[in-house]
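#dry-run=false #mode=assembly
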Amino acid sequence: MNGPQDLGGQMGFGPVAPEKDEPYFHADWERRALGVTLCAGAMGAWNIDESRHARESLHPADYYSSSYYQIWIKALETLLKRHGFVSERDLDAGEAIDAAAIPKRVLKAENVPAVLAKGGPCNRPMAEPARFKAGDAVRTKNFNPTGHTRLPRYARDKRGRVEAVRDGFVFPDSNAHGQGENPQWVYTVVLDGTEIWGEGADPTLVVSIDAWESYLEPA
Amino acid sequence: MSHDHDHDNELDPFAARVRALETILTRKGLIDPAAIDVIVDTYETKIGPRNGARVVAKAWSDPAYADWLKRDATAAIESLSYTGRQGEHMQAVFNTEETHNLVVCTLCSCYPWSVLGLPPVWYKAPPYRSRAVIDPRGVLEEFGLTLPAATRIRVWDSTAELRYLVVPIRPAGTEGWSEERLAELVSRDAMIGTALAQEPQQTREPA
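#status=ok
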């Protein structure tokens, strides 16, 4: 979706302002927000693509005025409601009132190290060979889907070159919507800065994206 | 940890909202608050940019390791026991005299947690995410880094599940240094691409 998350090339947000010796957390609630988000995800009711889509579906004004942990929590409330774990009444009252759906699993403290060390690999075996090979000229798709996608607006309908064939990966555009993993080959595709930004572009700039196969056409 | 004190009226509204959510989920038996403590401790004290710095120092010291890191970063990094969440599919990209690498996630906050830990706020915020792909030189200037005009800049937008680690150029004057000493020259920002490795005189003398 052409949502607030799709930031590449947007203007007006000001300087980056890195903080010297920045702490990992700026308030204790950020620690709890990280942990609650990971523990809730570990219930197994949704996948990372659905999470990302919930975050980018915040109203743009809300997204841009929220810190990243705030974005996580707001999206998490949406996910928990959608999957029947909390109700609007629970959240309004700040208490557990309504019964919850049964999770696939509950992450216990003793299992955290193993779960974090294992992660959640998203590569999948592919039955079909890759359509493109390194060096192939390609054009990225021109589309504006209302659902989740990982092809940023600035990189649509652009000429580029396949630099590397990576692996088969779960396709986020369907997986975010409960429509299956439908794995596709992913390629690192390089785009010249001048192709993306045109007049005035930095001539020394090359940008790469990692693109699922259906984002690409031969050029 | 201060989350278990009882003065809710002292909390700002968002802190209260997070605490309420944690309470609801805990009472419903959906989460284990002790698991949150372990997660926080892991990312606050165990997994951070020192992991990545050791990978870089080893690549500087050992050409065979550097070659492995180029070909199969996930396996090469796993050999140092850095694995797991948001590091499942790693790529290492090597700076050269001709090309400087910079990593961003314009669409969210993708970042190689297994080697760099949790991302800093600026990495997740709109100014960096919007400008890294269109004005990387301007962004680097804000980090105090001015690259030669002829240097090619390669920006890696982490749009899929590959996570990128920049291997900066090894500074001159570090011949014969141990990996431990070399690792001290490698900052988090150097592994994102918003800094170079520190020059030897910028670090303290070994005791």
